[in-house]
Amino acid sequence: MNNLVAAPIVLPLATGALLILTRRLPVQRSLSLLSVGLGLILSLRLAGQVWTEGVQTLGLGNWPAPFGIVLVADLTSAAFVAATYAAAVAVVLFSFYSLERAQEEHFYYPAFQYLLVGVNGSFLTGDIFNLFVFFELMLMSSYVLAALGGRRAQLRETLKYVLINNVVSGFFLLGIGGLFRTYGTLNMADLAVRIQMSDSGGWLSVIAVVFLVVFGLKAAMVPLHVWLPETYTAAPTAVVAFFAGVLSKVGVYALLRTYTLLFVADVGFTHQQLLLPLALVTMVVGIMGAVAQVDFKRILSYDIVSQIGYMLLGIAILTPMSIAGTVVFVLHQMVVKTVLFLCAGAAERVTGTTHLQRTGGLLTTHAPLAVLYLMAGLALVGVPPMSGFFGKLALLRAALEAERFLSGTIALVVSLGTLYAVIKIFRLGFWGEVLGDRRLNKDSREFRGMMAVIGGLVALSAVMGLGAQFVFEYAAAAAGQLLDGQAYIRAVLGTFDPASYGL
Amino acid sequence: MELLVAITVGVVVASSVYLLLARETLRVIVGSVLLGYGINLALFISGGIATMAPPILLDDGSLPGPVMDPIPQALILTAIVIGLGVFALLLALGYRTYEEHGTTDVSSLAGVEHE
């Protein structure tokens, strides 16, 4: 029992409730920043505790494990929560400089806090129905944030986003109903035990596919990715930076958790026949979309889809190396995708557009932005020493060790496509002659503030790359925990024997 | 009894799919919410249908014979509340979209490049 596990959920929940009472901007800003800052410190402390003392759990309301809802922080969830907070600090700071006043005043900060509750809750919960509730909380806040400002395109795309998510949430419930009907429990550790004890092979695969559809949609896996590029292009850029960095990774985390703990009875079908081809298609379709676009945010949005493919590939291969690679890759993406969208936001603030043919020459007028963008872009492609290299290296090694040569080749070719997309943005938007408006001076307070935030995240990416020894050691340990279901089960259930109360 | 509930679930879900395929945004919205209700109903009977006592201990601390599993009911209660919130948001969003676009035809709400 460790109350610190609940801190990343309780803290934003309380802050959000407090912020909804006032619309005074200075209060909103300072409280939000204070909350995410404190959250970052607490989540790092939690990660430290998990690293030294093993998996931390908290039975809510002091109910013992399979009967009450339990929060579980293992190495993976603790690291993801910490990375979420790192992105959140950057996004809150960036919002000060980039949002329109009207958006900021209409409950932007409370909605953002509730989004954090949903995201952190999804990472930390050990109960599958609780996961659904936190998912809904996260989605509800994301609907509000995506529609904030109420521009034509925003409303239209948010309507589609809500509708498609609402339908898929129904499938989530259906999957939970299927699990509960079959195994009589909702606690994930208890479920894992019961799945090992029983032999419901085919039916379990059906439920696994339902969950693949649900989490695949949230993670924007092809062919369930169609909502992502348009929604992300329409919404305010500071918000999208957080969506891109963190929100789509929650789906990946849920898949990572369920596909290593619960649905491992028929790996040949669920992982190799289903997830692996989908991962490859996701990579290829995503990057083809990115290469074809001429809009800063659209290129990056399609690129999210393609990067999701790498993470799914790691889950599908299911070796210690590949899972460790996935963990590193998710952490890297949380930072780098956020910073790339923040670059897009800064460029939009300066030029008034994200269309790359109506702008150009930012390198001449706003050199710091161009330099930072290029560094973040190269991190995305996977140029050492930035953070992208090591995740990809591990995934490729895992693919080759598992003798999945086609997958490895496709992953490499898609990397080239990513390089092309990154350079395309640089060539059109930053290189060449000065084109289009300049609404923000290079020496203005806003621009400097945005550069400081972006610079901080780029530095974090570089630190993750340079400290790859430690990052990888951590990820390998996290992968060990994920793949050894027994350790998770022991940590959650303790001495409790599920066979004792019969089913 | 199970068969009756199963048929009801089927009818509700079929109606919702019919509405989801309509061209009016309002119908699509109602369809997506109706789907949630159909699934709630399916979840409701995942605990089985039987005449049993409610799961409340007697004064002496013993169970009053076989009791019903209360969890599915707790689950759908949560799901209904969430569904209500999403429904309200969807209606507001649908109305604002109608105000801005002047149409409720789904096919005229397709994305436009660079507006």
Helix and strand string of chain B, N-terminal first? HHH
CATH C-level class of chain B is: Mainly Alpha
Following the backbone from N to C, one meets helices and strands of chain A in this order, namely: HHEEHHHHHHHHHHHHHHHHHHH
- Specify the CATH architecture of chain B: Orthogonal Bundle
Description:
The complex is a heterodimer of chains A (503) and B (115). Helix content of chain A is 77%, strand content 2%. With 503 residues, chain A is mainly alpha-helical. Chain A has one domain (3-490). Chain A is globular. Chain B is mostly helical. Chain B is 61% helix and 0% strand. Chain B starts with a helix and ends in a 14-residue tail after the last helix. The model of chain B has no long low-confidence stretch (mean pLDDT 88). Classes of the chains: A mainly alpha (503), B mainly alpha (115).
Would you kindly provide a brief summary of this structure?
Chain A is built from 21 helices and two strands.
Features:
heterodimer, A: 503 residues, mainly alpha, two-stranded antiparallel ribbon, B: 115 residues, Helix Hairpins
Write the layout of secondary structure elements.
The complex is a heterodimer of chains A (503) and B (115).
Chain A (H helix, E strand, L loop, with lengths): L6 H13 L5 H29 L2 E4 L10 E4 L1 H24 L2 H5 L2 H17 L3 H20 L4 H32 L4 H10 L3 H19 L7 H8 L2 H25 L5 H26 L3 H22 L2 H32 L10 H4 L1 H15 L6 H14 L3 H26 L14 H22 L1 H16 L1 H9 L10
Antiparallel strand pairs in A: 1-2
Chain B lengths: L1 H19 L4 H20 L26 H31 L14
Helix pairs in contact in B: 1-2, 2-3
